[in-house]
TrEMBL record:
PANTHER family: ALPHA/BETA-HYDROLASE (PTHR43358), ALPHA_BETA HYDROLASE FOLD-1 DOMAIN-CONTAINING PROTEIN (PTHR43358:SF4). It comes from Lottiidibacillus patelloidae. It holds the Pfam family Abhydrolase_1. Residues 94-214 form the AB hydrolase-1 domain. This is AB hydrolase-1 domain-containing protein.
Amino acid sequence: MRAKNKNEKRPSDVKSNYSKLALGLFILLVFSLCTVSLLSFSVATKLTHPDRTIAKHHPSKKNLPTENIIFLSRKDKISLSGWIIKAKRDTNKWVILSHGYGGNRNIFGSKGPNFYKFLHDNGYNILTFDYRNSGVSDGKITTVGYHEENDLLGAIDYILTINADAEICLMGWSQGAAVSLLTASKHESVKLVVADSSFRNLQGFVNENLSQWSNLPNYPFTPAILFMIPIITGTNIADVSPIDAINNFNGPILLIHSINDTTIPAKNSKYIYEKYKEKKEITLILYDSDRHKDAYKQFPKQYKADILEFFNRYGF
């Protein structure tokens, strides 16, 4: 008969240890999934609810005739607030300015009135406004283009109520640039577009760059956040694709980007340009600046000259 070894584990003991290990791994997995889900939901909520900033630098600082306006987004009738600055002489030429994510109608902060004066002195009417969930406009969520397209269409509709034969340039920065490209083909009154620092499509941009915004590892958080955003917003970010939307726009397009932009890399504008350079009147200007949508602030004279050259080239 074999002597019994006190250290020898019975089959039931081994089975019990495996069960405990499996339970521990299961608890760890559940905890990890919960942590990823909660962090991803928190980031997705923050991204779709950016802090508001209010315009502080009024065009009147440059003695510009400024009218406060309120109009409605086209589809869901959200109330939007803005300014109209009329040119010195009657004209049907209008420039609608679209701010970036988390911004407001005062596009360049303290330098905003200087830019308005530049357009005003060159004979253009201006409409600039706060998008939904921005500035003092209504709305509780930001969709980075999906619903903002209807805000811009509402601005176009408003202009046409006071100037039925208006010819319109859509000019935007960052999110506003993307919205301008998305909207351009939706109304025949839009004659040309200036898009500074747009992304090519939202899904690709988020996949490639979200970790910079979230300060979280790309995996597993980016897929999780992308899963959460449609749940929070009720939208499909794959539908926010400026590079596809302008296929139906026949007017001239000016793309502007800072070469060293790390927020929305310049390759986004390059992709758009390369896709359409043989098919459309499209121009790409790259500035040797190192920050997002900062070309005007670093090179104001050249920036304004490039805008005017583009307008004059196409008779606007």
